[in-house]
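REQUEST FORM: STRUCTURE PREDICTION
Request ID: SP-0412
Submitted by: Lab K.M.
Chain count: 1
Length (residues): 457
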Amino acid sequence: MSGNTGGELDFSIETLGPARHASPMALGSQPGDGIVDFVDDGQRILFDLDLATIREELTAGHEPAALELAGPRSRLHFRPSEVRAAIVTTGGLCPGINDVVRSIVLTLNWHYGVREIVGIRYGLRGFVEPHPPPRPLKPEDVRSVHREGGSFLGSSRGGPTAKEIVDFLDREAIATLFMIGGDGTMKAALAISEEISRRGLAIAVVGVPKTIDNDIPFVDATFGMITAVSLARQAVDAAHAEAQGALNGVGLVRLMGRESGFIAAQSALASGEANFVLIPEVPFDLDGPHGFLACLHRRLVSRHHAVVVVAEGAGQHYLDEDGSRGCDASGNPVLGDIGRYLRGRIVAHFAEHGVPVTVKYIDPSYMIRSAPPTASDAIYCQQLGQNAVHAAMAGKTALMVGRVHGQQVHVPIRAVANRRRKLDPEHPLWRSVLQSTGQPVRMINEDPAGPAVTPHP
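STATUS: Completed
RESULT:
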């Protein structure tokens, strides 16, 4: 273990053993010589940048929590010519998956001379199911995959046990495993790492955070989110055009966000046309004088059109009072369709009050998930893939690469495996949403804080 941190957060990174081999990369080691340098294990950045918090930690005798910088090391644990690598993509589709796979393959091959790379087909189940078998990956196999959406390796939810996966890794002499996925994948990566450790095997496991919901903790953003916001903005703009095209028109857009409302919030801000944003982190009533339907009614009386953005996980208690829908293969609760439910409630509410209303419902989820990444996401994916390889070749394991405060770092998987990042209702991001939409601070009858809806042009 290396890099212990003080306080409650431990960002130390596990290693498989000493780094005995010189890196084949021709980089420098002296700052100021005009040659880009290797990264030293001692280079870290503070996780919490709040000055008061840092002072408190130091006063208490703790070293402030810090993250190890990602990047190429001058010394490697593995001899590159002896490495056999495996790559797997899991969970739902997300913009940028192919970009990450391509980056990993090219970095392994061209910068380290690793020639044996296999892609596991259709998620974790590919470790145990014989058909289709793992696919050998060479640079020519990934030359243009980054131009396509989806995952050319295929993906799936759920899968075999950690024991079965490690059986495969041991049998196939895999030295480095790259796992591209969300919170469920990181839990699996942790279990696989623990099984590897129990057996005393020298296999590095490195995760790359993939989730449109942006719900992986500690990192600034997961790849795919920027693309999702860009495309979701188009749906919000379309909903605005539809709403304006009818008397008392309502454009209703359901976006991704199982437990975290980042996509809904940022898409609404990017568009600037949303009048209501409903997310899982901020409760709301539907009925009553301060509930959503009454607020929407006042908006239509005043402006005669409205745009509503709702995250898929918002208001689930209205749809599933007995929790009977169960969980999917990844262990996530199966959600009801809050968008369709809201559409029905909106139509019923205005019919009851004798007010004509036209509701246009848009759900662009699968179009967004399967799209190629935007330029910003493509850059991020390229860097994540490169740094995942650098970490694995140095013998670092049970970690996830990501970006914190604008810099690529290593985050121990144990720190993220059982946590989920959520939008803080007291964060300036949500304040910006409230200011942009003009919706009340709360739409709760017991606590009707905030002014009535402010009409926006």
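NOTES: The chain has a mean pLDDT of 92.
Reviewed by: T.R.
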